[in-house]
């Protein structure tokens, strides 16, 4: 991991949904090449924070800079948004694959439409990343023919086809049967080992402890505790984090 080279900088950011204050003045940064796990109970704001990083949600207050782009500026242009989305890949809980397209077509659509790649170039890129996630033989299959773990690996490969500098994962294993979780985490672990900047909202504490450089624990819209991943998870300092971790152990 490279030090002192922040690729995401957020300062005093707030996000409200009507009268509900979801993010309450959060400040921090993500370093280039860093893997950060964001943990916390449902409704604490962690997924909202992640969605702000690629402007799926607009912040209401504060400053947010992602890969040199100031996302909080009011006149943010469509062209800038397109540029941002090529640089920041996102993997969702529910895969979000196009059901009417084959695996290969799911992967080649954005490189052709957004990056201007030819059909041949897009297919070559797709093949490379399908190989990477162990699904080269599924190129002609449709999403309904895949297991949940395979769908999520395809979703990861689809994001990688855009050659992003940052990958965001919003609870990527929460919709999977327990026996399928490992195959997705293995792909994510490989990406981390290759130096991909990753922000991962997760309940997989073993993954966070072993793979993440740092953990951010959120509680009721604020950062309640953060630090080196292994240290935070094995030696929590706050009662709130201790309670959260103990509840996970009992699940």
TrEMBL record:
SMART domains in UniProt: AAA
Ranges that cross the membrane: none
Gene Ontology molecular functions: ABC-type amino acid transporter activity; ATP binding; ATP hydrolysis activity
One Pfam family from the record: ABC_tran
Record domain ABC transporter: where: 8-245
Stored Gene3D superfamilies: P-loop containing nucleotide triphosphate hydrolases (3.40.50.300)
Signal peptide residues on this chain, from the entry's feature table: none
Key words of the record: ATP-binding, Nucleotide-binding, Phosphonate transport, Transport
Zinc-finger found in the keyword field: no
PROSITE patterns: ABC_TRANSPORTER_1 (PS00211), ABC_TRANSPORTER_2 (PS50893)
GO biological process, one term: organic phosphonate transport
CDD domains according to UniProt: ABC_HisP_GlnQ
Similarity remark: Belongs to the ABC transporter superfamily.
The protein, known as: L-arginine ABC transporter ATP-binding protein
Organism: Nostoc cycadae WK-1
């Amino acid at each position: 991991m490279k030090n002192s080279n922040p690729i995401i900088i957020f300062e005093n950011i707030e996000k409200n949904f009507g009268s509900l204050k979801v993010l309450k003045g959060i400040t921090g940064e993500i370093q280039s090449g860093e893997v950060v796990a964001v943990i916390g109970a449902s409704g604490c704001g962690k997924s909202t924070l992640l969605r702000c990083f690629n402007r799926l949600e607009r912040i209401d207050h504060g400053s947010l800079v992602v890969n040199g782009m100031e996302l909080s500026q009011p006149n943010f242009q469509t062209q800038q948004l397109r540029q941002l989305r090529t640089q920041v890949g996102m993997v969702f809980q529910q895969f979000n694959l196009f059901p009417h397209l084959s695996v290969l077509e799911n992967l080649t659509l954005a490189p052709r439409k957004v990056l201007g790649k030819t059909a041949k170039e897009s297919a070559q890129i797709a093949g490379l990343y399908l190989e990477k996630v162990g699904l080269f033989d599924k190129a002609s299959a449709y999403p309904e023919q895949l297991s949940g773990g395979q769908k999520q690996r395809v979703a990861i490969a689809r994001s990688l086809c855009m050659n992003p500098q940052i990958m965001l994962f919003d609870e990527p294993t929460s919709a999977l049967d327990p026996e399928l979780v490992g195959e997705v985490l293995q792909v994510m672990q490989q990406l981390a080992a290759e130096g991909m900047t990753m922000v991962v909202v997760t309940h997989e504490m073993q993954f966070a402890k072993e793979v993440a450089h740092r953990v951010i624990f959120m509680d009721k819209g604020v950062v309640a505790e953060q630090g080196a991943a292994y240290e935070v998870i094995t030696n929590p300092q706050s009662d709130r984090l201790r309670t959260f971790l103990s509840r996970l152990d009992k699940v």
